[in-house]
Amino acid sequence: MSIFNYFRTKRAPAASATTAKERLQVIVAHQRGQRNQPDYLPRMQQEILEVIRKYVPVDQEDVQVQVDDSDNCSVLELNVTLPG
Amino acid sequence: MSIFNYFRTKRAPAASATTAKERLQVIVAHQRGQRNQPDYLPRMQQEILEVIRKYVPVDQEDVQVQVDDSDNCSVLELNVTLPG
């Protein structure tokens, strides 16, 4: 299944008469070749957020951050609800 | 299914004796509230790549870019194969 299908299935229910909330989701997945490679996702996360803030005003409480770490793969997920 | 499961299922086959390639995948999904909202993903894409370049040396040919646009959702996928 390609990532695009993932987002198609995940989409919010059909936009009702009132406009649906605008959302932005950023995912960074880092698959390391060896185990001891540095994990720079936490620092990269903050800088990606600053890039997003150049385009849309985002308050910290509008950003949900999830990080999943396993043996050689880290996945960072930022969910941003944008001002409607 | 959460995005983390997506990446777990998608992972490369078990790393053989030689080290697996290091990869970075960045996905930005923008779900617009209304149809005519501006789509800033193309410009954001370049800036996110520049953030990544601060952490790892990345040549343009090591970056695959895929964009999927439908009625109110745009998904940008950057696949970066990092120097092994």
Automatic annotation (TrEMBL), chains A, B:
Keyword Cell division: yes
One Pfam family here: MinE
Record key words, sorted: Cell cycle, Cell division
GO molecular function: identical protein binding
InterPro entries (UniProt xref): MinE, MinE_sf
Coiled-coil residue spans: none
HAMAP family the UniProt entry points to: MinE
Similarity annotation: Belongs to the MinE family.
Name recorded for this polypeptide: Cell division topological specificity factor
Domain of life, per lineage: Bacteria
One of the GO BP terms on file: regulation of division septum assembly
SUPFAM superfamilies in alphabetical order: Cell division protein MinE topological specificity domain
Function (record text): Prevents the cell division inhibition by proteins MinC and MinD at internal division sites while permitting inhibition at polar sites. This ensures cell division at the proper site by restricting the formation of a division septum at the midpoint of the long axis of the cell.
Keyword Zinc on entry: no
